Amino acid sequence: MIVSGLDPSGGAGVQADIQATTALGCHPLPVLSCLTVQDTRNVYNAEAVDADLVRQQLEYLAADCRIDAVKTGALGNAAVVNAVADFLDQHTLLPLIVDPVIKAAGGGDLADDELLSAMQQRLFARAEVITPNGIELTQLGGFEDQRDSARHLLDGGCQGVLATGGHGIGEFITNTLYRQDQAEKSWQIERVGGEYHGTGCTLAAAIAAGRAAGLSLEDAIEQAQRFVSGAINHALAVGHGQPVPDRGVTWAAQG
């Protein structure tokens, strides 16, 4: 089950989630949480779907279909967060992957303080893992040091934090998994030059697909990282958004 926002440019949000989960052998059940005014450059406006409508989508799908994992992305507002959390109260055994979307790649805001507070209070503790990038991790955890921020979130009840390094610099991207009372584990992936729209959505959705298929969390993360690397290496150039200098194109979406 995917609870995420609509990206009209097709590179992120629910479209990226559908593509990733389908490619990895799952059938996605997409529940729209918000609509955006968005192109390949940025998000210009966003409006949450009515929380009761989200609640109804979740309940009817759960009554009809087998659900093996849940992934959340941009949720629109605190009321939608609470609707999702209320649903999860009734389905406590489902693996939950939370992509705590705060800003679009172009810088447009997708979450206010009320929404972030609701996520921290009602979703993080029930999530198997949250997948913040470096900017999101600093804002959510309150520390410049990645480890300190991750540990702060774990101390607040979060079960796991996968700190993703795509926004950093250097030849390699380092993603690090922090968990309660367990040693941290890191992965290094060769960085492909340029900026890519929707990689965070794709990674979290691919992790959820792996968990739905019965993989352990670490194995699901490893599969998801391979999938995202492959998507980047076969990226589709669309529009006039983030430059991809080493490819000679203007924007890359998941292909």
How is the secondary structure organized here?
Blueprint: E1 2-6, H1 13-23, E2 30-38, E3 43-48, H2 51-64, E4 70-72, H3 78-89, E5 96-98, H4 113-122, E6 129-130, H5 134-141, H6 146-155, E7 160-163, E8 172-179, E9 182-190, H7 199-212, H8 217-233, E10 236-237, E11 252-253
Parallel strand pairs: 1-2, 1-4, 4-5, 5-6
Antiparallel strand pairs: 2-3, 7-8, 8-9, 10-11
Q: Which structural class do you get from the secondary structure elements?
A: alpha/beta
Q: What is the overall pLDDT average?
A: 89
Cα distance spanning the termini: 22 Å
Count of distinct strands: 11
Q: Give me the strand/helix succession.
A: EHEEHEHEHEHHEEEHHEE
Give the biggest beta sheet: 6 strands, mixed
- Within the largest sheet, what's the order of strands? 3-2-1-4-5-6
Quote the beta fraction. 15-25%
Count of DSSP-assigned helices: 8
In which range does the helix fraction lie?
Answer: 25-40%
Low-confidence stretches: 244-255
Q: In angstroms, what is the radius of gyration?
A: 17 Å
Gross morphology is globular
Structural notes for this entry:
The chain is α/β, with parallel strands linked by helices. Helices cover 38% and strands 21% of the residues. The protein has 8 helices and 11 strands. The protein has helices spanning 13-23, 51-64, 78-89, 113-122, 134-141, 146-155, 199-212, 217-233, and strands spanning 2-6, 30-38, 43-48, 70-72, 96-98, 129-130, 160-163, 172-179, 182-190, 236-237, 252-253. It has a 6-stranded mixed sheet. It has a 3-stranded antiparallel sheet with strand order 7-8-9, with helices on both faces. Strand 1 (2-6), helix 1 and strand 2 (30-38) form a beta-alpha-beta unit. Helix 1 crosses helix 7. The longest helix is centred in the last third of the chain and has 17 residues, at 217-233. The two termini are 22 Å apart.
